[in-house]
TrEMBL record:
This is RWD domain-containing protein 4 isoform X4. It holds the Pfam family RWD. It comes from Heterocephalus glaber (Naked mole rat). Residues 127-159 are annotated as: Disordered. SMART domains: RWD. Residues 147-158 have a biased composition (Basic and acidic residues). Signal peptide: none annotated. Residues 1-103 form the RWD domain. InterPro entries: RWD_dom, RWDD4, UBQ-conjugating_enzyme/RWD.
Length: 180
């Protein structure tokens, strides 16, 4: 019955998402609001006699510090204890909406540039060894150097038309097929 009630109450509400018949997400605040957060509530088999599982591990909440998340979850757990034995998903979502400012008063967006710089510094060493391998491949034997010197002029450039023979061969092969 609670499932049907939630579906009818939140029908057309973009903040509400039914992940499964026993798991729901609700975004508290507008999507562009820096103090917006996402709550996920999952019912256990013995719900509502036992508390639902409340989570804030969604990627949407990655800028919220773990201390603020823990404080929000603690306040929601208090509301769960008061409503234990009754259908409470709607009550918890509304409680979070009504107390959003109080929940997020200590929120300071976590700077994600530190994690990006850590990722970059981790990737940089992995690029360096591959460039060393390329240097080893570029070393030529004496015979290879001689062949290259014979092909190039005194400036190290290949003469004009050095690959024309390959082009002519290619065109003669493809041209004969077109003539048939």
């Amino acid at each position: 019955m609670e499932l049907e009630a939630l579906r009818s109450i939140y029908e057309g509400d973009e903040s509400f998402r039914e992940l499964s018949p026993v798991s729901f997400q609700y975004r508290i605040g507008e999507s562009g609001d820096p103090k917006a957060f996402l709550i996920e509530i999952s019912w256990t088999e013995t719900y509502p006699q036992t508390p639902p599982i409340i989570s804030m591990n969604a990627f949407f909440n990655n800028t919220i510090s773990s201390a603020v998340k823990q404080s929000i979850l603690a306040k929601l757990q208090e509301a769960v204890e008061v409503n234990l034995g009754t259908a409470m998903t709607y009550t918890l979502f509304e409680y979070a909406k009504d107390n959003k400012e109080q929940f997020m008063e200590n929120h300071h967006p976590v700077n994600s540039t530190t994690s990006i710089s850590n990722i970059i510094s981790v990737e940089t060493p992995s690029i360096a060894p591959s460039s060393k391998k390329k240097d080893k491949k570029e070393q030529l034997s004496k015979a290879q150097k001689r062949k290259l010197a014979d092909k190039t002029d005194h400036k190290g450039e290949l003469p004009r038309g050095w690959n024309w023979v390959d082009v002519v061969k290619h065109l003669s092969k493809t041209g004969s097929k077109d003539d048939d």
